[in-house]
Amino acid sequence: MAKYDKADIERRMKGAVESLKGDLSGLRTGRANTSLLDPVVVEVYGAMMPLNQVATVSAPEPRMLSVQVWDKSNLIAVEKGIAKANLGLNPMIDGQTLRLPLPDLTEERRKDLAKLAGEYGEKAKIAIRNVRRDGMEALKEDEKKKDISEDDRKRSEDEVQKLTDSHVAETDAAVAAKVKEILTQ
């Protein structure tokens, strides 16, 4: 049975790009974005839980996030979780709600965030290239086992390379858009 599976390779490359987009959405640009709090975990009921499982996060104003805690007894735990996440946000308690004003980004912080976006992009490209390598190795194994001919292998290798190129280009475009957003806000 042939080891090469084009659909699997394409799925894995798309997964790398989607993961990158998720990472980039968590980078702060100056505007309030609820995904900024996605990495926050809170210790409640004796377990670590993602913030979105104990509270509702919204962005009522362009420079403010609001965290509506469902159980008032968890308010302090949520505040500690946000502080521990080291996002540079200072929660203010307002009844059963936490208000998180977003401070202006300094030029230095913007450059750091742009650099971090580039690092995320590099990691995604490495993942895509690793998938390409796996596909190429599978094709060579199939050829050795006589499952496919040399011409089929070369044709399939070209397809894998085209997939790789398109996903790398998509990665570059996502990173460039995020860097532009960070530096111009």
From TrEMBL:
<dbReference type="InterPro" id="IPR023584">
    <property type="entry name" value="Ribosome_recyc_fac_dom"/>
</dbReference>
<comment type="similarity">
    <text>Belongs to the RRF family.</text>
</comment>
<dbReference type="InterPro" id="IPR002661">
    <property type="entry name" value="Ribosome_recyc_fac"/>
</dbReference>
<dbReference type="InterPro" id="IPR036191">
    <property type="entry name" value="RRF_sf"/>
</dbReference>
<keyword id="KW-0648">Protein biosynthesis</keyword>
<dbReference type="Pfam" id="PF01765">
    <property type="entry name" value="RRF"/>
</dbReference>
<feature type="domain" description="Ribosome recycling factor">
    <location>
        <begin position="20"/>
        <end position="183"/>
    </location>
</feature>
<protein>
    <recommendedName>
        <fullName>Ribosome-recycling factor</fullName>
    </recommendedName>
</protein>
<feature type="region of interest" description="Disordered">
    <location>
        <begin position="139"/>
        <end position="167"/>
    </location>
</feature>
<keyword id="KW-0963">Cytoplasm</keyword>
<comment type="function">
    <text>Responsible for the release of ribosomes from messenger RNA at the termination of protein biosynthesis. May increase the efficiency of translation by recycling ribosomes from one round of translation to another.</text>
</comment>
